[in-house]
Structure formats: C-alpha cells, structure tokens
Fold this sequence. Notes:
This protein is of the alpha+beta class.
Amino acid sequence: MSKPARHADSLDQVELLMALEEEIPHFDVLTDALERWNQTITHEQALRLIPYLVEPVKVSCVRNGFATEASLVARRSNVGLAVDRSCGQFAVGDVVGDSELRNARHYPTLELALRSLEGSDTEGHGI
C-alpha cells in the first residue's frame, strides 16, 4: 500500500521561508507582506520567482488614478512586480526609470501576480 501524497504543512512553510531569507538578500520584504496578508509561498512559486528577484526599491505605483508607494521586488526586463502595502496587493506593471511602475495591474495573490509577470512581453506589460 502506498503512502498518500504529503502536503506542505506550516513547518515546511517556515523552513522554506527561513532558507530563502538566508540565501536571498532582501527576500524578507516579500515574505513580510505575504505573512501580513495571510498568504504563503510554495516551493514551486519560489523557484519561478527567484530568477526575477531584485534588491527592493521604492517606486510610485498608480492604482485607480492614485499614486501609492510600493516596493519593487522582482523584474523581468521592463516589467516589474511590486508589493503595494497601501492596498494589500501585488502590482505588476512597466518599470519606468528607477522609481515608477506604470500601467500597473493589481493582484490579490502572489500566484496571479507571478503569472502576470511571467506572461508579460519584455517590451512592456502587454497582457
């Protein structure tokens, strides 16, 4: 009789986050937001995100016509993924200069934001 598939439990989650925070400088910006928003990051999501991680920088992010301050945490060419604490969501948009995220779309989960980042064309946020 085979054993049932093992699902990640909270201890696995803590170990994953601790390992990522040790290995990747500034990863805590993302993990703090996830914790605050009662979300988790899976091992698979972390592996998909790691190639795009950047040192967090504050950017102006436009949401519904209002500019908010967000932390850019990942970048794929000219498209960035930011933590927007003002609304408790992730933003994906076009990185302009060193301090602006334009045409931003907001996502309630990291998975949706990561899919948007991965699916964007590299010339701009084309989805």
